Amino acid sequence: MIRRGILAGLAAASLGRPALAETWPARPVRIVVPFPPGGTVDILGRLTAAWLTEATGQSFIVENRSGAGGNIGAAAVARAMPDGYTLLMGSPGTQAINAHLYPNPGYDGIADFAPISLVAEVPNLLAVHPSLGIRTVPELIAAAKASRLAYGETSIGGSTHLSAELFRLQAGIEGEHVTYRGSAPMLGDLLPGRIAWGVDNLPSILPHVRSGALVAVGVTSRARWSGAPEIPAIAESLPGYEVTAWFGLLAPKGTPGEVVATANAALAKMLATPAAVRRLADLGATPIPGTPEAYRDHIAAEFRKWGEVVKRAGIRLE
């Protein structure tokens, strides 16, 4: 009877635990992208899904679950069963910025997740409609001081929002701020000229610059991007200006360490391939794989950094 009691206790305890990690992934895995299709998080989420599918032989499927600056999708993953079958494509907004903007995002970007790996980082790009005849940062600043130009970004509280607001503050300009829920809606107004300028992640907006539909004014990284050295860094005109976006994969807190390690190793293997490096370079991104511990430290550092920026810039949700 004692033996039966022990076995029954073990069986009951196992009901609350995820499936054995050594079987992972034994069925399709869902990667939640907490933003609409078409943006950089979505692009990199789909690339990550394809790479993990190739590395593991199991299907990884992207699910776009947007809203509230990424909070809805991130909160859904935070509450998911920690069995490795629901993952999140995280970004500075969801993991490090939203907590400083929203009274209750619905999750903790640090405590509620098990980081797996950073995937890539990208600069943002400030672009204008060609009808303005503007090609440089000083020209944009002069035009914006002469008239309140409408400008947009792709996610309230995200890196594009902070890029736009820091530019406005450092340049000493005002304007009609329009916030959008994703890259596609913002470009839907910028491409026909309904807004004068906008900031987006480089992979999302660069094709429109290369096609001539938009004019690149500057990248938000400290230095010029090697893939398009003809585009100046905004910091060349506004010293000290710098914003970069990063993206990485996370699992719900409590996900078995073996699952995290397996996913991390698979991503590291794929990100080291020449094909992946070239694909990311084509998008304006740089691979930045690393350990789960390094990813956790990175999120913590970004949390502190952006908290100070939000406070200094006086950014408030409308």
UniProtKB/TrEMBL annotation:
It comes from the Bacteria. Residues 1-21 form the signal peptide. The keyword Ribonucleoprotein does not apply. Keywords: Signal. InterPro entries: BUG, Bug_dom1. Belongs to the UPF0065 (bug) family. This is Tripartite tricarboxylate transporter substrate-binding protein.
